[in-house]
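Format notes (please read before filing issues)

Several people have asked whether sequences and structure tokens are stored in separate files. They are not. Every record keeps both together, in the order shown below: the sequence lines, then the token lines. Line labels are part of the format and must not be stripped during preprocessing.
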Amino acid sequence: MSRNTKPISEPWTDPDDEYVEWTEEMFRKAAVYKGDNLVRPATGTLKSIGRPPSPNPKQQVTLRLDPDVIEKFRATGKGWQSRINAELRKALGI
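Then the structure lines:
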């Protein structure tokens, strides 16, 4: 029997190990503990990191389509749902 030389999966990395440099604002808003005792609760919230909110967000809907239509769009790769949206816009003239 041949020996499997490929790793079964990628080695696990802890997502909490990412280094985040704290700003003065973060320190001001953070909760302060002395041992297990809360000295000062956190104030406010910090801005989330990520994509900025869209001025015109898309809405989730349930739509029934023929299986062959879905298959053809899925075969075009990643972003197939956006391409369906583009085709609908084109058909509606918007």
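For reference, the curators noted about this record: The CA atoms of residues 47 and 53 lie 12 Å apart. Residues 80-92 form the longest helix (13 residues).
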